[in-house]
Amino acid sequence: MIRRMARGWRLVALSGVLLSPLTAACSSGGDGGDTTVTEGVTAESVLDTAAEAMASVDTVSFLLAATGAPVYLDSGGSFAFQEGDGRVSNSASSAEAVVKVKALGIDANVGAVSIDGELWLSNPLTGAWEPAPDSITFDPVTLFDPETGWTPLLGDDLTGAELLDDAPDGQWHVKGQAAGTRLGAITGGLVTDDAPMDVWIDRASGHVVTAEFATVSDEGDTSWRMDLSDYGVDVTVTRPPGVGGAGVGGS
């Protein structure tokens, strides 16, 4: 259950010059992981590096999960989002995912394929592929739009950012207040309000590894977690069977 996806994501390519101020300044706590934040490294410098990296992403895999109060994929409140697991190719303007939903108290998996702005969903009862209805409000491909997603979030819209000293080995941990407009982009429209956010960033590449945040609605509290992986791995998305047209590939 996802609305039209017209965008994709880009591959990272950071130079050693860009990362050297961070890697030279970091220190490791050994087997226990990175336990100190060293002089010269700030939340702002880490976020600037990450924003640059995320602006260049081309292919990536994502896992977005929500627990707690329900958040709905559709404007009618029929399909409660639980989890989305997928991959995207920006160069091919394509994406595919499996979305786990709860409808009328029943858990169901829905396939989603988007190519050049066209979106098809699998019917959870019959398995047949159908064009997505306009009522679907979930669009995860906005996650890596350089103008609306991760890049502006990390560059400008994670306010009050703090660099914490509890990150796993090889990562940075930054905490701040994320703007609702940016959360809307990186969750495909599922979140629209400001929320406190924790982000874990890979020191070597500048890629976001994990993000966690919590939202409050009339339904109650919802906890969110997003894991990003397989940056730069080849992605090929093909049209679902029975809908016609040629497949589109990405790399």
Q: Would you mind describing this structure in some detail?
A:
There is one protein chain. This protein is mainly beta. It has a single domain (16-240), classed as outer membrane lipoprotein receptor (LolB), chain A. 14% of the residues lie in helices and 39% in strands. The chain has four helices and 13 strands. The protein has helices at 16-25, 43-55, 150-155, 180-186, and strands at residues 59-68, 79-89, 94-103, 106-115, 118-122, 129-131, 158-164, 171-178, 195-202, 208-217, 220-229, 235-237, 248-250. Strands 6-5-4-3-2-1-11-10-9-8-7 form an eleven-stranded antiparallel β-sheet. Strands 12-13 form a two-stranded antiparallel sheet. A hairpin with a 2-residue loop joins strand 4 (106-115) and strand 5 (118-122). The longest helix is centred in the first third of the chain and has 13 residues, at 43-55. The two termini are 25 Å apart. Mean pLDDT is 82; it is low at 1-35 and 246-251.
Query: What is the CATH third-level topology name?
Result: outer membrane lipoprotein receptor (LolB), chain A
Q: How much is the average pLDDT? A: 82
Q: Using the coordinates above, name the CATH class.
A: Mainly Beta
Low-confidence stretches: 1-35, 246-251
> Radius of gyration over alpha carbons?
19 Å
Q: SSE string, helix = H, strand = E?
A: HHEEEEEEHEEHEEEEE
Tally of domains: 1
Bin the helical content: 10-25%
The shape is: globular
Please report which band the strand proportion falls in: under 5%, 5-15%, 15-25%, 25-35%, 35-45% or over 45%.
Answer: 35-45%
Widest sheet: strand order? 6-5-4-3-2-1-11-10-9-8-7
Quickly give the CATH architecture: Clam
Number of helices: 4
Number of strands: 13
